[in-house]
Amino acid sequence: IKSIKKYHDKGVRAYEAESSIGWMSKGLGYYLAAKTMWDIKTDAESVKKEFFKLCFGNAAEEMKKLWQDWENYSFSSIRPTDLAKWIDRTTAAAKLEQSTAFKKRLFQIRSYLHWLYLYSEYEANKSEANLLALLSYGYRKLDDGSVSGFPAVTVLGNPSGFRDMGLVENPKWKYNTSPVTTEEIDRLIAEDRRKIKVTEPVKENTLTQKFITVPNIKRFSNLVADSATGDNAFWLTNEWVIEVKSKGANSYIDFTGDYIGDVTQKKPIKISLYRYEADGNVLSQTPLIYYEYTATKIKERISLAKLEAGYYSMIIEDPVKIFRFTTSPSVNFSLVMRPHRQANTTAFFYAFLYVPEGTKKFNVIKSANLELITPTGRQLTFGKDKAEEAQIDVQKNEAGLWRIKLMTGKLYVEGIPPYIGTSVSQMLIPADTK
Predict the structure, then answer these.
(1) What's the pTM value of the predicted model, to 2 decimals?
(2) Is the separation of the CB atoms in 223 and 314 below 8 Å?
């Protein structure tokens, strides 16, 4: 809508584009675009309400929640608990509206959800059987466009290495030419839901305005040696919360980057500091400090002397060069994890999470490797080089610092403060943490 209005203001009155017939996650956008191009003064919220009411009748509010989940989804892999929730929404919606038109739309949505289930199964185990199930189902759904059946053959089938699974004369996935029926989808969705393992609820991560450093660090002396000099490396985009304890020249960052040394990559690593925003949304702000690192493995000092004492959000954008940094003792800091901006590292070997008193369970969502050590010395190792979600039970005397012995790729946590400390003495956690 913003784009359409921007071009309209510049005098544009015609628009040519391509679209797909897959209307599940796209349908609302198509409807909004058509209405806005017809009348630039169209109120988007009233159009959204109209879309859900016309499509889903009495089930409009239930289905609107499904679209909101899709619109704001930040995870690269589909979480089982979320897929189960989406299936449950369609089951609840089916009890609210019985019209023939609604049932046809619900059939397509549930067809899409079964596709997501099959795709998740293939992501978890890239076997020939799982790929065949996915591509065969996609082929059977080509006529109604509710799933990405044909693109999947190109993107997944061709490079899979399995014989006759790509675009060949007689592919294996063409063995079933019968259309998918409503009765079949209802059966498949029910089976999917029974197989999905749903995690138990954990404490919701809340936005934090004030921070403290880890209280009584000596409690964890058997686990902790300050990791400020540890070999922890980052890449891509990450966010930190920074606390400047006092204004002056004693506040700085020592930064080193471009460990890959790719001479073809000319883009700099960009370091930006803003006024602290609890939700991390700093796009509307002008950076208080902006620095471009263009060297290769040369330590450069970034002065924070102009900053008043207080909290700041720091965003570092790395065009795949790899970087490391430390701060002066007068600066505390923690890496922030959000669903849309997860911790992103080539490798951590010495970093920490904080598990508050009273925590019974928490979730980790990782993309590659993760090994943890609890305050009691219990070691947890999760699937190697594998994207997965795990729910962790916190045992007796395990409140406090948990060491990240190894982490690669992306990480997000739920149920505990979403912060990682790479210098224990300077690690920030929410002020109300016990």
Answers:
(1) 0.81
(2) no
DSSP 104-167: HHHHHHHHHHHHHHHHHHHHH---HHHHHHHHHHHHHTTTTTSS-HHHHIIIIIGGG--TT-SS
DSSP-H helix ranges across 153-278 = 182-195
Contact call for residues 76 and 96 (beta carbons, < 8 A): no
- Taken in order 417, 204, 67, 125, the sign of the CA dihedral is positive
Q: How far apart are CA 54 and CA 51, in angstroms?
A: 5
Which stretches in the chain have pLDDT values below 70? 21-23, 225-230
Mention every residue, 6+ apart, whose C-beta is less than 8 A from residue 42. 35, 36
CA–CA distance, 187 with 189 (Å, rounded to integer)? 6
Residues in the chain: 434
Among candidate residues 93, 96, 73, the one with its CA nearest the CA of residue 83:
73
Which 3 state secondary structure label does DSSP give 380?
Answer: strand
Residue 323 and residue 258: Cα distance in Å, rounded? 6
Q: Where are the alpha helices (DSSP H) in 153-286?
A: 182-195
Residue 52 confidence (pLDDT) = 96
**Ramachandran class of 33: left when φ > 0, alpha when ψ lies in -120 to 50, beta otherwise:** alpha
